[in-house]
Design goal:
TIM Barrel, alpha/beta, Lyase, Ornithine Decarboxylase, Chain A, domain 1, 2 domains, seven-stranded parallel sheet, elongated, 26% helix, six-stranded mixed sheet, 363 residues
Length: 363
Amino acid sequence: MRPDTAPAVLTIDLGAIVANWRLLQAKHSSGATGAVVKADGYGLGAGPVAAALAAAGCKHFFVATPDEALELRKTIPDAALVVLGGLFAGADHDFAAHRIIPALGSLAEIDAWSSLARRLDRALPAFLHFDTGMSRLGLDAREYAVLAEDHGRLTGIDIRHVMSHLVSAEAPDDPLNAIQRDRFNAGRARLPAAPASLVNSAGMFLGKTFAFDLARPGSALYGINPTPGRPNPMRPTVSLAARVLSVRDIPPRATVGYTASWTAQRASRIATVGVGYADGWHRSHSNAGSAYFDGHPVPLVGRVSMDLTTFDVTDHPEVQPGTWLEFLGPHRLVDDAARDAGTIGYEVLTALGRRFHRVCSPA
């Protein structure tokens, strides 16, 4: 379908994503800056995003699963491609065959990767992940202590980086940031010497003592503010416009949508748009926030349903069937939409549906 006939158009600005990466790269002057492109590039398309960033000079890419890595390897054949979820059981031969790097986070994963290296008679690359406070992935304190006393378990493993993950980087005054950094430094000292990677997007703004050798930004690349409560240093990267399907006049006291959750207080004009929670526009947006018409907000009224959302356009008689409303764009950023839905920008982006007509502007 052509953009001029589509009910909704999602535009991804690859040039802005590259500009954001370059800004972060300049900030991380002490080392390299990679790119997290998991969850299909935060919902914007891992293939086009990774291709644009690789062309700009990015050499390290991070995904969550082996399937994401195998698909992306077709696009970035020469890049370092790291699976943050670790060495998935049964996938070790796929990792080795396609030069995919696991972030090893348990003794079992370390032993399996070392065993495969011996069978193949060649060193296999890996990140070594230990937990400093997140309590999700990574060697826990018991496993770390075992490894620290027995480096022989790493035989055949080429440790590219030692890594951990910050819990509260978005809150720069949280003392847990410094606690994790110090745990990370102490942990590295008991392991074979290797480059280090600690910071995510927000962590890149905590200062030089957190920077280390490789940064792993994700959300900031896509325009989400890595410094909540302060001006966003990143460029917006996505816009979403949807076409009005119908406009109807309703009298005072008429209700709109499921459960009659909105009642007109005056004679009103209601515009219906073909975007709903099946497209990732969360039901929690119901009766919250707005879209924009010609730079002016039009309130979202009633429940967001599976395929449709309704807006009060009473004060904008120019709105007619076929008029475009801005859901995301210069007047309504991803973080704005997240605030209105009671969530975070990550969820807004990764939920954006496949029914939208997608357009990638060139890098």
